[in-house]
Specification:
- The complex is a heterodimer of chains A (216) and B (984).
- Chain A is mainly alpha-helical and 216 residues long.
- Chain A is built from 13 helices and four strands.
- In chain A, the strands form two sheets. In chain A, strands 1-2 form a two-stranded antiparallel ribbon. Chain A has a two-stranded antiparallel ribbon with strand order 3-4.
- Chain A is globular, with a radius of gyration of 19 Å.
- Chain A starts with 11 loop residues before the first helix and ends with a helix.
- Residues 1-25, 105-114, 193-205 and 211-216 of chain A have low confidence and may be disordered.
- Chain B has 984 residues and is mainly α.
- Helix content of chain B is 71%, strand content 0%.
- Residues 1-215, 434-439 and 895-984 of chain B have low confidence and may be disordered.
- Classes of the chains: A mainly alpha (216), B mainly alpha (984).
- Chains A and B meet through α2, α4, α5, α6 and α9 of A and α1, α7, α9, α10 and α12 of B.
- Chain A: One of its GO terms (molecular function) is calcium ion binding.
- Chain A: Its main location: membrane.
- Chain A: Keywords: Calcium, Cell membrane, Cytoplasm, Lipoprotein, Membrane, Metal-binding, Myristate, Nucleus, Phosphoprotein, Protein transport, Repeat, Transport.
Chain lengths: 216, 984
């Protein structure tokens, strides 16, 4: 694990010593989580960290059953990792998790001047969107949908049926006729009243699993 | 170090963050207008495209010119030495006040404001530029970013600070000089500073000593604002399109300023207050959080239900939630019953054995304590507070003058009132929350695609089932679609459906008759000597009813297969039929019971007459024998008094027995049908010829519909029986309580998750509707008996009155002032009641009509939305083509003045195109594609191995891994392959 240089400007050992002191304070502010949550998360982090080198690998994440089972689990796990990295340190871990923190009532109208927090609705949706947008072209194409479908329904449905499902999906959500779902369209779908449940609860659930499962 | 260290995800996050930064920079109220505009810009793809395209330098130049011209007439003397300087100026405009430029220092306040305005106007564009900034991410970026984020975070902690309106020049200047001084420090120092800053954030009230003690409130406010701005700048600095050197310098200065003044914010008077505020705010947040946790922890069985939910999905959990709801309801009912009827009677009423109705008759006393008798609720059980007959008819009891009979009647009726209210309220809330849960058709597949996975599932078995259920749901949707088109062999299907309904009607009628027959027979048995009867003969009714409940539902299910309904509809039919069965059984049972009651009434009349006659004889004899008119009542021990059958108690006993047998059957079914079966399947599987687990017996599934219906009917029994057996509610509370634990255990240990999980929210209101129906139906017999049947003359709180509701009349007459009685008389006048009923009917009609109108309006709106959507689609498609041309033209413009220096040139186009691609038109711009193709492909190939790396374990249901994971890298994918032909 010696080849990565980016995040490793902070060595694991340094990290461990830093955790109780300054970064926690920073993270408290940045992620708007409480000290106790951070300490809990940190203990969870260390318990996940089987290699005990202050970073998590993909294998570490896959030990979480909820993630291992999830058809999109790998993609969620990938979201934790900076590109080209095999390790994620506590800070990166926290940063990704911060997306999932539920929006609390008292935050909604707290301070209009503050920049949008990571856990805002848009950012949550964006996170979700990127789970589907594999090639990162800001569009969910038919092929990407097909991949997700294959993951979700396995081989129980014939290919042409899958294709028709994907077509129908795009047909429903697509607004500008480019045969793919852009983030704006994705948000629009998410803005429908029905799916409020989704963007709210569904990804709250995701946050729930990640925060609770990871915190355990 | 590679130039791009973050995943694309991270970068995109930042991009969005930047949008938002740009947007929120303008937090002040007067900038709302600007924000709106920005939003508009963000939302509409066209503008967005521009936004994304912003990266081209032309626009920036424009802005700059603008800003400069604004400034021009203010600052004549200002020298614009270099391009860099220009840039700086623009920066200044962007973040309202920068302290960098010493040369142009100390413009007037108006000018600052002017600048601010220009910033506002430029806001949206600035956002676009921010996006561009991402491109320029270079080596320091990640560090920068982290710092920035930290600062942002810190900012968020001090959000509470009030922002002042004015800017304080003095501090300003001071800050500048200060910043200047510190600006020389190197990077290492800066890091230290960062830490210091962090400390500040945690103890931001620990003011720094300074010379601003004389500052006024307004000045402090201004200073606060100043600091806020600084912090904002720090937070957004990394997005600014400047060279790294400059950014670092600026950063240092800002940091120094913030460090210097943040602590001083609360100088003097305000400091303590501010400190308190901060502390209190923190404590409040913590307290709220803890309180929320506490509240969650206080919800009974929340953990248990969540556990079940995670294993069995929300539909099974919905049953337990329903059970919990039921438990709550019954607890309240129990509170009423116990607090207002049972407890007063026990505390203040006459003790056991004092009067005949509270004493076991002599004939039964020998066996009154026998286990078998007690199990049948005879003996001491029958003559206890559990049943109607025990209550005395004294108008008031005890020191408190508690009007027990009145209370009894009111509680009996009030239970219905309360239940009705609660059920309807819950239904209304449910329908408000979940709607009907049906598919709107607009986004069916989209929702399924994006939302079907339950992220809480952590159990492989459940996951498999979830895969299956997703598959099924997709299949269902396909089937739905197909079914809409085909209608083959409709006659055969109709015939089959009629046939099936015929069968079911037959079996329903048969079961009804069977129950009627059995009840009749049990009445005959009751006349015989109890000792000669076998256990079966004594409990025939219960046994038969339970058997019917066991046999009929599967039978219906089998018959229903003839119908070939859509499974969803089939489920409702099934529920309705089982409901009808239960209902039929219940009502047959009730009618039989009424026969019984009538018989008992006759019997009672006879006994009453006999008693009166006997008394008369006694008085006659006594007066002739003792020759006195002062006759003491006959001294018969209470156990020996001849008494009537007391039909109310008998009815109560019937209900209690029914409830108890229901409990027994339910629990035994679970024990045998689930537990024993699971044990057998599990352990015999080792030595069996076929696979028991996968094959025939398998493990049981949790029967949601049956359980919920059972619960509902049980509740019906409670409602009906509670009037005659006040103890029934308590029994039910115990039952629900034990049932919660027992069923939770059973479901977790012996059941397997469903293969098809039907939507919980939908069925929940369906169940509520059934519950409401049952409530109404059980209301009828109770009200009927209260209003028409004469109460027994020698037992119960209403004995000696012609009707039960006479208690109310009595109270009105005797205890309330006369005019209230008058009012009541008028109110009960048919002349008043009929109009009232009429009015209510009219109101219902009106409300119904209104709701229909609303429904229509809703439909209309939906249609309009659909139309608008289509229209938008069309319009966009049209626009796209024109846009295309525009973009081509724009691309041709020679505009390279703002292109970043070569060192930073490599990343930008890549990122920019990514940015732009958020908005399809830009992505399709042919001009752009040519240049960016290479980078894009790199992009794709970067993404692909990445996602592939994650695959370490081939999961079963996910299908071919090669297909499932990661896009196949190569030129064929993504935008890189070139622009798809524009539409229209």
């Amino acid at each position: 694990n010696g080849s990565k240089s980016v995040v490793r400007t902070l060595r694991p050992e340094a990290f461990k010593s830093m955790i109780p002191t300054i970064p926690v304070t920073n993270m408290v502010c940045f992620f708007a989580v409480s000290h106790s949550q951070i300490t809990r998360l940190y203990s969870r982090f260390t318990s996940l960290d089987k290699g005990e080198n202050g970073t998590l690998s993909r294998e570490d994440f896959q030990r979480i059953p909820e993630l291992a089972i999830n058809p999109l689990g790998d993609r969620i796990i990938n979201a934790f990792f900076p590109e080209g990295e095999d390790q994620v340190n506590f800070r990166g871990f926290m940063r990704t998790l911060a997306h999932f923190r539920p929006i609390e009532d008292n935050e909604k109208n707290k301070d209009p001047t503050a920049s949008e927090p990571l856990n805002s609705r848009t950012n949550k949706l964006l996170f979700a969107f990127q789970l589907y947008d594999l090639d990162r072209d800001d569009k969910i194409s038919r092929d990407e949908l097909l991949q997700v479908l294959r993951m979700m329904v396995g081989v129980n449905i014939s290919d042409e049926q899958l294709g028709s499902i994907a077509d129908r999906t795009i047909q429903e959500a697509d607004q500008n006729g480019d045969n793919s779902i852009s983030f704006n369209e994705f948000i629009k779908v998410g803005n429908l009243q029905h799916i409020n449940v989704w963007a709210g609860d569904h990804y709250l659930i995701l946050s729930y699993i990640l925060l609770s499962v990871l915190q355990d | 170090m590679p130039p791009r260290k973050k995943t694309d995800i991270a970068i995109k996050m930042e991009e969005v963050g930047m949008d938002i930064d740009g947007e929120l920079d303008s937090g002040h109220e007067d900038e709302v207008r600007w924000r709106d505009r920005n939003r508009k810009v963000k939302l509409s793809p066209r503008a967005g495209g521009r936004n994304g395209k912003q990266a081209t330098s032309e626009e920036e130049e424009e802005e700059e010119d603008e800003a400069q011209s604004k400034r021009a007439h203010k600052k004549k003397a200002k020298v614009q030495d270099s391009e860099e300087e220009d840039e700086e100026e623009e920066d200044e405009a962007q973040r309202k006040r920068a302290y960098k430029k010493k040369a142009k220092v100390q413009d007037s306040e108006e000018e600052d404001e002017e600048e601010e305005k220009s910033v506002k106007r430029k806001g949206p564009k600035a956002a676009g530029r921010n996006k561009k900034a991402v491109k320029q991410v270079s080596e320091e970026e990640s560090e920068e970013e982290e710092r920035g984020k930290k600062r942002k975070g810190r900012k968020s902690t001090i959000k509470n600070q009030k922002e002042g309106q004015n800017k304080e020049k003095k501090s300003d200047a001071k800050g500048k000089s200060d910043a200047k001084g510190k600006g020389v420090k190197d990077k290492g120092n800066e890091k230290d500073k960062k830490k210091k800053n962090a400390k500040y954030s945690s103890s931001s009230s620990s003011g720094e000593s300074g010379d601003e003690d004389s500052l006024s409130e307004g000045e402090i406010a201004a200073q606060k604002e100043e600091v806020e701005e600084k912090k904002k700048l720090i937070a957004t600095l990394r997005n600014k399109p400047w060279r790294m050197k400059r950014r670092l310098k600026l950063l240092k200065e800002c940091q120094a300023f913030v460090e210097k003044f943040e602590g001083a914010l609360g100088k003097g008077k305000g400091r303590k207050l501010y400190a308190y505020k901060v502390i209190i705010a923190k404590k409040m947040i913590k307290f709220n959080r803890d309180f929320d946790n506490f509240k969650t922890a206080c919800i009974p069985w929340e953990r248990k239900i969540k556990e079940v939910e995670s294993h069995f999905g929300s539909s099974v959990a919905s049953y337990f939630i329903f059970l919990r709801w039921m438990y709550g309801l019954n607890l309240v009912l129990f509170g009423f019953m116990f607090g207002l009827v049972v407890l007063p009677e026990v505390m203040m009423g006459l003790p056991y054995g004092s009067i005949p109705r509270k004493t076991v008759p002599r004939a039964q006393q020998a066996k009154a304590m026998d286990y078998s008798v007690l199990l049948d609720f005879g003996g001491y059980c029958k003559y206890s507070v559990l049943f109607y007959g025990y209550y005395n008819d004294e108008r008031t009891i005890g020191l408190l003058q508690f009007r027990l009979p009145l209370s009894y009647l009111l509680v009996g009726v009030g239970i219905f009132g309360y239940s009705l209210m609660v059920v309807i309220r819950t239904m209304a809330r449910n329908s408000d929350e979940g709607g009907d849960g049906g598919d709107d058709g607009q986004f069916t597949f989209t929702f399924k695609m994006f939302t079907s996975w339950d992220y809480l599932i952590g159990n492989p078995e459940t996951a498999d089932n979830k895969y299956a259920s997703i598959t099924t749901s997709f299949k269902e949707s396909i089937v739905d679609e197909q079914e809409n088109q085909k209608d083959e062999n409709i006659h055969l299907r109709r015939f089959l459906r009629v046939l099936a309904n015929l069968f079911i009607l037959c079996s329903l009628g048969g079961s009804g008759f069977l129950i009627y027959f059995v009840v009749k027979r049990s009445q005959d048995f009751a006349k015989l000597d109890q000792n000669t009867l076998s256990w079966y003969e004594k409990n025939e009714v219960e046994v038969v009813m339970s058997l019917l409940g066991l046999v009929c539902p599967p039978l219906f299910e089998t018959i229903a297969e003839l119908e070939e309904y859509h499974p969803r509809i089939a489920l409702k039919w099934q529920l309705g039929r089982i409901f009808a069965l239960f209902l039929g059984n219940l009502y047959t049972f009730l009618f039989a019971l009424f026969d019984d009651v009538n018989e008992k009434l006759e019997q009672e009349k006879y006994i009453k007459n006999a008693t009166i006659w006997g008394l008369k004889e006694y008085y006659a004899n006594y007066s002739t024998f003792h020759n006195t008119t002062d006759i003491p009542p006959p001294e018969i021990p209470p156990a020996d008094v001849i008494r009537g059958p007391c039909w109310e108690t008998d009815v109560g006993i019937e209900f209690v027995k029914l409830t108890v047998s229901d409990i027994q059957v339910t629990y035994l079914t679970i024990l045998i049908g689930d537990f024993v079966r699971a044990v057998i399947v599990r352990f015999l599987n080792y030595c069996w010829c076929w696979d028991l687990e996968a094959g025939f017996p398998s493990y049981g599934e949790f029967d949601i519909s049956g359980n919920v219906l059972g619960l509902i009917f049980n509740q019906g029994m409670i409602w009906m029986g509670a009037f005659y057996a006040p103890g029934l509610v308590g029994l039910n509370v115990l039952r629900l309580l034990s049932s919660m634990y027992y069923q939770c255990w059973a479901v977790m240990s012996c059941n397997v998750p469903h293969e098809r999980v039907f939507k919980a929210s939908k069925s929940n209101n369906f169940y509520m509707g059934l519950l409401l129906l049952v409530l109404f139906l059980s209301l009828l017999p109770v009200v009927y008996t209260i209003m028409t049947l004469p109460p027994s003359s020698d037992c119960g709180p209403f004995s000696g009155r012609a009707q039960m509701y006479d208690v109310v009349m009595e109270t009105i007459e005797k205890d309330l002032p006369a005019f209230i009685g008058n009012i009541f008389t008028y109110a009960t006048n048919p002349g008043l009641i009929i109009p009232a009923v009429l009015l209510m009917v009219l109101a219902i009609y009106y409300l119904n009509a209104t709701s229909k109108n609303y429904q229509n309006a809703n439909l209309e709106l939906k249609r309009k939305m659909q139309m608008a959507r289509d229209e938008e689609k069309n319009r966009r498609n049209n626009k796209e083509s024109t846009n295309q041309v525009m973009h081509d033209l724009v691309g041709l413009l020679p505009n390279r003045s703002l292109i970043p220096p070569p060192a930073e040139e490599a990343p930008p186009p890549d990122n920019m195109s990514e940015k732009g691609s958020k908005f399809p038109k830009v992505a399709k711009r042919p001009g752009a594609v040519k240049v960016k193709g290479v980078n894009l492909q790199k992009d794709v190939s970067l993404a692909a191995p990445n996602s592939r790396e994650a695959v370490t374990r081939p999961p079963g249901p996910r299908g071919p891994p090669g297909n499932a994971r990661g896009p196949p890298p190569g030129p064929g994918r993504g935008r890189g392959r070139g622009a798809p032909p524009p539409r229209c």
